[in-house]
What we know:
The chain has 337 residues and is α/β, with parallel strands linked by helices. It has a domain at 2-180 and 232-262 and 300-314: NAD(P)-binding Rossmann-like Domain (Rossmann fold). Helices cover 41% and strands 18% of the residues. The protein has helices spanning 11-22, 38-48, 62-71, 86-91, 93-113, 147-165, 199-207, 235-251, 268-279, 303-309, 317-330; strands at 2-6, 26-31, 53-56, 76-79, 118-124, 170-176, 178-180, 214-217, 229-234, 254-260, 265-267, 285-288, 297-298. It has a 7-stranded parallel beta sheet, sandwiched between helices. Strands 7, 9, 11 and 13 form a 4-stranded mixed beta sheet that branches. Helix 3 (62-71) runs parallel beside helix 5 (93-113) and helix 7 packs across helix 11. The protein is globular, with a radius of gyration of 19 Å.
Amino acid sequence: MVVLLTGGAGYIGSHTCLELLKQGYDVISVDNYCNASPEALRRVRELSGRDVKEYRLDLRDKQALRRVFEENKIDACVHFAGLKAVGESVSKPLDYYDNNLISTINLLELMAQFDVRNLVFSSSATVYGRADTMPLDESLKTWCYSPYGWTKFMIEQILRDAAFANQALSVVLLRYFNPVGAHPSGRIGEDPLGIPNNLIPFVTKVAIGELPKLVIYGNDYNTPDGTCRRDYIHVCDLAKGHVDAIRYCDSHTGCEAINLGTGVPYSVLEIVNSFMRVNQVDVPYSIGPRRPGDVDECWASTEKARRLLGWKAEKGLDDMMRDAWRWQQLNPKGYHG
């Protein structure tokens, strides 16, 4: 089975690529490398002992993408590609709508023309907005508070409409919670540009001395220790979820939204303390004011993933912290070191 990964060299894309290769799939990667490095795929080849067919292109270039479909018999697509920084999306909304929506429409149109019927979409728990009900399950209404989130929301609707119009199409919308960690080898991992937006890469950069300290935004939330609680999932568990979703697509039609998380929330302080304990390293931190928009806690209902995909997260918090630190130690400058 041949699987096309858009954004295949990215953080989640590269781990999914490796998992697919390990499980016997053939993989084609399309990436423009605006948020990724070709080095990631070189290391995937090294770890798997298998090749990945690679195209450097922007999905908005429909003619370039058409050549990928013309030159290969594709059985399924996993759509990771897209701009993904919440803060940047607020300052550059048109860039996000143009990039993320046009890319998806081009992909769908070519899938239809070349009779590719299986699609797994990289969505996000941001589509739940600020829901008060926990855990978050897939039946809840969706809403967003950033242009990035709205692109996920809109793409989900586009895909539902496409699946309704074409009864042969099978779509799975995977709503991620907070992917963290790295491959246990330390060869592939998260390589953010500039100062990280996410907690764990920030923690690892403080631990290695690249940043002076971590600022924890607020310690007066309605949680056991006063800091926000979130559902963190190991990126390797997430990768396996994509493989299970592809299998599901191959035997079902229609469109399903499915959460991928652990169903267990951890606070910021629990994350920091686990990281220091597991890795025997200090992480200086201070308490700062709350950030606008942060909710007290957020975690996933994982029952639907278990029921439909036969999937559940296997790695715990200590695994996430250990693998994140190993990646940082072995790659202090990321893929560009």
